[in-house]
TrEMBL record:
Transmembrane segments: 7-28
Identification of the protein by name: ATP-dependent zinc metalloprotease FtsH
Localization annotation: Membrane
Family annotation (PANTHER family): ATP-DEPENDENT ZINC METALLOPROTEASE YME1L1, METALLOPROTEASE M41 FTSH
Record PROSITE patterns: AAA
Organism the protein comes from: Clostridium ljungdahlii (strain ATCC 55383 / DSM 13528 / PETC)
Broadest EC class assigned to this enzyme: hydrolase
Every AAA+ ATPase domain range: 182-324
Main location: membrane
Pfam families: AAA, AAA_lid_3, FtsH_ext, Peptidase_M41
Keywords for this protein: ATP-binding, Cell cycle, Cell division, Cell membrane, Hydrolase, Membrane, Metal-binding, Metalloprotease, Nucleotide-binding, Protease, Transmembrane, Transmembrane helix, Zinc
Membership in a protein family: In the C-terminal section; belongs to the peptidase M41 family. Belongs to the AAA ATPase family.
Gene name of this polypeptide: ftsH1
A Gene Ontology molecular function term of the record: metal ion binding
């Protein structure tokens, strides 16, 4: 609508240009009137061939002869000039007819310019209003059933965790009839480029509901209150669509939901608070039956304000991880689909692209397609991906993990398998659900996810075994690579194990130095801390030796598992069960 109106400004501009052309043309034809001296004019007068003289105030007057020709001559400016001419039988006109002819285009020109200026002012008014306007947020619904779970390769766990949301969006009444409360907010977190936005769109596409996407940074405005109002507007818009169901996606939610630091608030953070509060109010304002789900995404879960994560808000947290080998293979195949490819070993490329995010794989394939196109090659071939690979690698900063050398991967693998193997030997009842060498927010190099048994009490033996599992990573490094080549990767493990050992000796009454005494209660006394540290060290040392022995005994199993982990990058409990028994 507004665009059509915008076009009308063309009309006054056109008319003004036309009238300007006319004026110029007239002036040109004006100036082509010949000039004759006053003397020759007087001769013409005496010859009685002059028909009309056009008198004006300007320096020249125009003369029309009886034969129709026109010329200009100097204005004598004598007071009786007119009388003289009239006496000679020459008609005298005091109106400059040529000027008369110019009056029309001049008027049109002036009117057109005024209209154009007026219209331009009105538009600029409108568009400047748009920036300030509280209710114009560009969150138009996208209904894109082309984007569904098929467009997301890999990420199986994440897809599984949102399956019920999709069901709910398809049929909210069914869930309501069971009295089931759906999570209102889902938080997707994970490294950039892992496909969080994609997954959110896929959820909407899969459920066939409109998708409203905004970014947290859109709400960070100069004017206080604008962000909050935009939030309200967004929800209103989503609720008022015809199906009443919607997915609202807030990307980069950390921009509005950053942890509030206690230090005095500045203007900017005031604004953010208002926006955040508006979001929380809106979220509690609609009920679960309505079929609206809010999905937020962030790269950093730990940066978020805990208020956002409470039940009834974003209470389901789904990690979107970097893809492992098999997922990468799927992503590569997906992006190669519908492209002319020849002889590309997808499996091999999946191996080579460890630590690549989905977005990076996408750009790798795209780069290869561009190269193939540049060469006018019929197909995208291996060599194109090869070239693209180095482009993509150098295109990103060095600190990126793509350059992690094989040896680093190997160390991580030994470290993680060390944890898992020790765990399976000393705590066979604890299920190890997953080990991976793909970094995640849970661990820098990789991580081992084990599900501890439920226990009311933790006995001394159990605590010892916990320390054993924690030391398993470092011990594996030492057993395989030698004491001089252990890494900093065990930093976190050692923190935990030290904590447990210290508590055993000083708080749980499981040590010798203090016996059953609790160190905290004795804090006023001057007790010998060295003794306590010595005992903790002895305890840990002896546990460490046991751990190393376990690993040495199971060296073959350790190596075989590492071999497989290097290949697959992620191992699940099934793989491990076979390997460890
Ligand atoms: P994020 O929001 O996590 O930063 P995006 O969803 O914006 O990541 O991903 C960017 C692009 O990377 C997507 O548009 C898609 O082309 C590609 N991509 C990422 N992950 C996947 C995946 N699992 N399957 C297919 N493509 C993916
Ligand atoms: Mg994104
Ligand atoms: Zn570890």
């Amino acid at each position: 609508m507004k665009k059509i109106k915008n076009k009308f400004i063309i009309i006054p501009i056109l008319t003004s240009i036309l009238s300007l052309c006319m004026l110029l043309f007239m002036n040109y034809s004006n100036s082509s009137v010949p000039y004759k001296s006053y003397i020759s004019f007087q001769k013409d007068v005496s010859k009685k061939i002059v028909s009309t003289v056009y008198m004006t105030d300007s320096s020249q007057i125009r003369v029309k002869l009886k034969n129709g020709s026109i010329y200009d001559t100097d204005n004598p400016r004598t007071p009786n000039a007119k009388e003289v001419l009239l006496n000679d039988g020459i008609s005298v006109s005091e109106q400059y007819t040529v000027n008369n002819r110019q009056a029309y285009p001049t008027a049109i020109l002036i009117i057109s310019i005024m209209t154009a200026v007026f219209m331009a002012l009105k538009f600029s008014n409108k568009s400047s209003k748009k920036i300030v306007s509280l209710d114009s947020l560009d969150a138009s619904a996208i209904e894109d059933s082309n984007c569904n779970f098929k467009s997301v390769a890999g990420n199986e766990e994440a897809k599984e965790s949102v399956q019920d949301i999709v069901d709910f969006l398809k049929n909210p009444k069914k869930y309501a009839s069971y009295g089931a409360r759906m999570p209102k907010g889902i938080l997707l977190f994970g490294e950039p480029g892992t496909g969080k936005t994609l997954l959110a769109r896929a959820i909407a596409g899969e459920a066939e509901v409109p998708f409203y996407a905004v970014s947290g940074s859109d709400f960070v405005q100069v004017y206080v209150g604008v962000g909050a109002s935009r939030i309200r507007q967004l929800f209103k818009k989503a609720k008022s669509n015809k199906s009443g169901k919607a997915v609202i996606f807030i990307d980069e939610i950390d921009a509005i939901g950053k942890k509030r630091d206690g230090s005095g608030s500045t203007g900017g953070s005031d604004e953010r608070d208002q926006t955040l509060n508006a979001l929380l109010t809106e979220m509690s304002g609609f009920n679960e039956k309505e079929g609206i789900v809010i999905i937020a995404a962030t790269n950093r879960l730990d940066m978020l304000d805990p208020a956002l994560l409470r039940p009834g808000r974003f209470d389901r947290h789904i990690e979107v991880t970097l893809p492992d080998v098999s997922s990468r293979e799927k992503i590569i195949s997906l992006h190669l689909k519908n492209k002319p490819v020849d002889n590309i070993d997808v499996h091999e490329w999946a191996q080579k692209t460890s630590y690549f995010s989905g977005a990076k794989i996408e750009s790798l394939i795209n780069e290869a397609a561009i190269l193939a196109c540049k060469e006018d090659s019929t197909y995208i071939e291996n060599k194109h991906i090869d070239k693209a690979f180095s482009i993509v690698l150098t295109g990103y900063e060095k600190k990126d993990r793509d350059y992690i050398k094989d040896i680093d991967k190997r160390i991580t693998a030994y470290h993680e398998v060390g944890h898992a193997l020790v765990s399976s030997k000393v705590l066979p009842n604890e299920k190890i659900s997953k080990i991976t060498i793909i970094p995640s927010t849970k661990g820098a190099g990789g991580y081992t996810l084990s599900i501890p048994e439920d226990k009311l009490y933790q006995n001394k033996d159990y605590l010892r075994k916990r320390i054993m599992v924690l030391l398993g990573g470092r011990a594996a490094e030492e057993v395989i690579f030698g004491a001089d080549y252990v890494t900093t990767g065990a930093y976190n493990d050692l923190q935990h194990s030290t904590n447990i050992a210290f508590k055993m000796v000083t708080q749980y009454g499981m040590g010798n130095t203090l016996g059953l005494l609790n160190m905290r209660e004795l804090s006023d006394l001057n007790i010998n801390q060295n003794e306590i540290i010595k005992e903790c060290k002895c305890l840990t040392d002896s546990i460490y030796n046991d751990v190393k022995n376990i690993l040495i005994e199971n060296r073959h199993c350790l190596k075989a598992t590492v071999q497989l982990l290097m290949e697959k990058e992620t191992l699940f409990s099934n793989d491990l069960k076979n390997l460890f028994n």
